Amino acid sequence: MKRHRDDLVQYRRTGKIHCYSSLVLESNDYVVNTVELYPCECDTQVCTSDECKQRLCRREGEYIRQYKKKFGELCVNRRIEGRTGKERHIENFEKYNVKAKEYSKTHKEEIYLRNKNYKKKYPDRVVAQAKAYRERQRFKKSCDGMNLIEI
């Protein structure tokens, strides 16, 4: 809660929103409730282990997801706690894909020049990467239809 109050002070000073909870605290129309007592598996009274913290963050993320489904834009939490970067990317794949395509369209010339300069500067790397790519493709084609087991 202290971080949220600090964000509110910064919001009042600069006018920039760092955290949407600042708007809730600004209105002074909120109640803080304990939703669930989530026990730690450690025997200590106050646990500081990273594993317990991650488990607690994952549980908080589950509540945020439930709230977002139920209340949509009324949910102040934008970041889903306990979610990895890979999970975030999978959940927002289409959004990232659209942004990447837009960037490619608007910066087409810049990307072309960057690739051209890279090929001039590192011709050995380009040849090695192309060779590795061809090997991977050849391996994929030879393995089509086969059931491979990873060990």
Helices and strands in order:
Blueprint: H1 2-14, H2 21-27, H3 50-71, H4 85-91, H5 93-106, H6 108-121, H7 123-143
Mind explaining what this structure looks like?
With 151 residues, the chain is mainly alpha-helical. It has three domains: 1-32, no CATH class; 36-91, no CATH class; 107-143. It has helices at 2-14, 21-27, 50-71, 85-91, 93-106, 108-121, 123-143. Helix 1 packs across helix 2 (21-27). The two termini are 47 Å apart.
What keywords describe this structure?
151 residues; mainly alpha; 3 domains; 7 helices; 65% helix
Please report which band the strand proportion falls in: under 5%, 5-15%, 15-25%, 25-35%, 35-45% or over 45%.
Answer: under 5%
Count every helix, treating DSSP H or I runs of 4 or more residues as helices.
7
Overall pLDDT metric: 83
The portion of residues assigned to helices is 55-70%
Query: Class by helix and strand content?
Result: mainly alpha
Number of strands: 0
State the separation between the terminal residues, measured CA to CA.
47 Å
Oligomer: single chain
Order of helices and strands: HHHHHHH
Number of domains in the coordinates? 3
C-alpha Rg (nearest Å)? 24 Å
Unreliable residue stretches: none
Main sheet overview: none
